[in-house]
Design brief:
The chain is of the alpha+beta class. It is built from eleven helices and 22 strands. Helix 1 runs parallel beside helix 7 and helix 4 packs antiparallel against helix 5. The longest helix is centred in the C-terminal third of the chain and has 18 residues. The protein starts with a strand and ends with a helix.
């Protein structure tokens, strides 16, 4: 008997899952996405992230989030359409640290999500990545790569490992363009007769027969029935669908985490100002450890104008966080993006790590590698110098206004044990208390890993797909 599987969301996870599950001819797969199918656009395919940022129709225009408690709601840069955020991100590929996954096992009872279990899958995925070359480095990349000694760090580590130091980055792109889940997994599978891709198909809610999920209802009222529904709609929309469906798990919408980041901008010497849009604008990273964590700080360079009148920047990001936010449905429009409160830096350890990250940026920018290329350094559109944050009171005000996120949200329907009141799904992504319903996306990660989340989500999607097909999570 042929099985019908409905996959909701065609992003990093959904494209991978649809391709894997449709490899079996006795299974019909329907892949739904709320946005358009706009693949092939040169701006999105470009290896330079700044091109994708200019393609505004590929982003949600109305997803806003408060970064800190009581803060102003700002636009959250989330990709919309087939390909999802993987079609608009900076294409940086990192697996995270072994301790991230070992913590899933020790703190949440998720023994099959330890580093021992996930590392072989990341090793397989490494073959799909491209490592930046020295020839592709921007002047900002080159300066950061040569700045390890300023902080007592190695200057040539492998960013796919857990070692602190400066490193060339891997990316989900080849020399010609973006190679995310859409390009690598979904596109080769599109010709299969048992795979249907339906863009412009937003899911309103789930359909039930008792405690069994039997399909979905689209906005507009169309009903689609299937033997299993797999939610891959992401950290914001997956819990929204659950809430619109009347589910009452206490963990739905809670547990939100993202990487807090703060940018330090600079003008550059005339010969370095023009950015080459034919190469990635980010090609290197520096990982270091704060006094409250290990490998929990990233310094990320960018060559290009994100703030008018600037030519480059260094981002300071805290990659292991303890602060937790939440989301809830918009009571004025349940189908609109949810109301998101990230509560970044609420935990004192996170704020301490961010302060140390910015101090590291100051040391790096004052070092001999950056001296020949940087003219002036400042932290906002007013031209405020970096030294201003040495004042504690000013630092608090500035950080509450200018801290951003890395757009790596996770945790709003997290994995855990059946006796965990805040767990929504088990280790296989099956929703507690319901049959026929799974969640396989970033929303089920218990904590944000120390990495850009695309690659960990693809790893998750690959593992869950393999387990579903074989009957065992390996």
């Amino acid at each position: 008997m042929t099985e019908t599987v409905i996959i909701v969301g065609a992003g990093s996870a959904g494209c991978t899952v649809a391709a894997r599950l449709s490899e079996d001819g006795d299974r019909n797969v329907i892949l739904l996405d709320a946005g358009a199918d706009q693949g092939g656009d040169a701006e999105i395919l470009s290896v330079n992230w700044l091109d994708a940022l200019e393609h505004r129709q590929a982003f949600y225009p109305d997803l806003f989030a408060s970064k800190v408690h009581g803060g102003k709601r700002l636009l959250y840069q989330r990709g919309r359409g087939v390909g999802g955020s993987a079609s608009t991100n900076a294409m940086l590929a990192l697996p995270g640290l072994p301790s991230d996954y070992d913590n899933y096992a020790s703190q949440y009872g998720l023994s099959r999500w330890s580093w021992l279990h996930v590392e072989p899958w990341f090793a397989k995925l490494q073959s799909t990545l491209t490592r930046s070359t020295q020839e592709e480095q921007t002047p900002v990349d080159q300066a950061l790569l040569a700045s390890g000694r300023v902080l007592g760090l190695a200057e040539s580590v492998d960013s796919y490992t857990a070692e602190d130091g400066s490193a060339l980055l891997y990316r989900t792109a080849d020399r010609e363009g973006r190679r995310s889940s859409r390009e690598l997994w979904l596109e080769p599978a599109r010709a299969r007769e048992n795979l249907i891709v339906r863009p412009d198909s937003q899911v309103d809610r789930l359909m039930f027969d008792g405690n069994r999920v039997v399909g979905v209802v689209l906005v507009g009222g169309e009903e689609l029935r299937g033997d299993r529904v797999i939610l891959c709609a992401g950290t914001f929309e997956t819990p929204s669908i659950l809430l619109r469906s009347g589910m009452t798990h206490s963990g739905i919408g809670r547990g939100l985490q993202d990487h807090p980041a703060a940018s330090v901008y600079f003008t550059m010497t005339p010969e370095c100002r023009e950015a080459n849009r034919e190469i990635p604008c980010i090609g290197a990273v520096m990982r270091l450890s704060s006094s409250v964590g290990t490998g929990d700080i990233h310094l990320l360079p960018l060559h290009g104008e994100l703030l008018p009148g600037t030519h480059g920047l260094l981002m300071a990001a805290v990659m292991r966080t303890k602060s937790v936010g939440s989301l809830r449905l918009n009571p004025k429009n349940l189908l609109a993006p949810p109301i998101v409160d990230e509560e970044m830096l609420a935990h004192p350890d996170d704020k301490k790590a961010m302060r140390e990250a910015l101090a590291a940026v100051a040391k790096v920018l004052s070092g001999e590698a950056f001296a020949p290329i940087v003219e002036e350094v400042f932290i906002d559109e007013k031209g405020t110098p970096l030294s201003a944050i040495e004042d504690d009171e000013f630092f608090e005000r500035w950080l509450s206004q200018y801290v951003g996120d890395y757009f790596h949200a996770v945790g709003t329907a997290r994995m855990g044990q059946a006796n965990d009141p805040d767990a929504v799904v088990d280790e296989l992504g099956n929703v507690f208390g319901f049959e026929g319903l799974s969640i396989w996306d970033a929303s089920i990660l218990p904590e944000v890993p120390s990495a850009n989340t695309h690659l960990p989500v693809v790893m998750l999607a690959e593992r869950m797909s393999a387990a579903y097909r074989s009957g065992a999570l390996v």
